[in-house]
Amino acid sequence: MLEKEAFGAIQKFHQSWYDTFHTVTQSTFDVQGRYALYMQNVLTDGIETLKGEIEIARQLLNVASKPQDQQDALQEFVNGGTEVYLRSIAYVQRTVERGGEAYRGNAETLREMSESLIRTAQEQQNSLWS
């Protein structure tokens, strides 16, 4: 009878270790996946932002190569520069917002993992002392 109880306790202990390992592994994959998606979005958005800025630069080079009124050319350069600046600021803003979302999601994942690990540890302790 004692062997049966010992075997049952060992099984519970092994199951709790398995559950702990599973929780940590799943949480790690969730966090890594969120970071990977964040980085992919930052790079993709950055490339698209740069493409738009390159197009503006090309337009400004065309303006500079054509003879025209200096006042008109200056206004086009100011407008183009402003557009590049606004695109860059919008990109930074999107990057920060997405980063905040990723960090909040990761903080929630880590909080849930911590709670799960605490529950598992308490269950292990209870099963050892009961």
What does this protein look like?
- The protein has 130 residues and is mostly helical.
- The protein has one domain.
- Helix content is 95%, strand content 0%.
- It is built from two helices and no strands.
- The model has no long low-confidence stretch (mean pLDDT 89).
**Approximately what portion of the residues adopt beta-strand conformation?**
under 5%
Intertermini distance: 16 Å
State the assembly state of the protein chains.
single chain
Largest sheet: none
Radius of gyration over C-alpha positions, nearest whole angstrom: 29 Å
The percent range for helix content is: over 70%
Number of helices: 2
How many extended strands?
0
Number of domains: 1
Poorly predicted tracts of residues: none
User: Which term fits the overall shape?
Assistant: rod-shaped
Mean pLDDT: 89
**What structural category arises from helix and sheet content?**
mainly alpha
Please write the string of helix (H) and strand (E) elements: HH
Looking at this protein, list some descriptive labels:
130 residues, 2 helices, 95% helix, rod-shaped
Summarize the structure.
With 130 residues, the chain is an all-alpha fold. The protein has helices at 2-65, 70-129. The radius of gyration is 29 Å and the shape is rod-shaped.
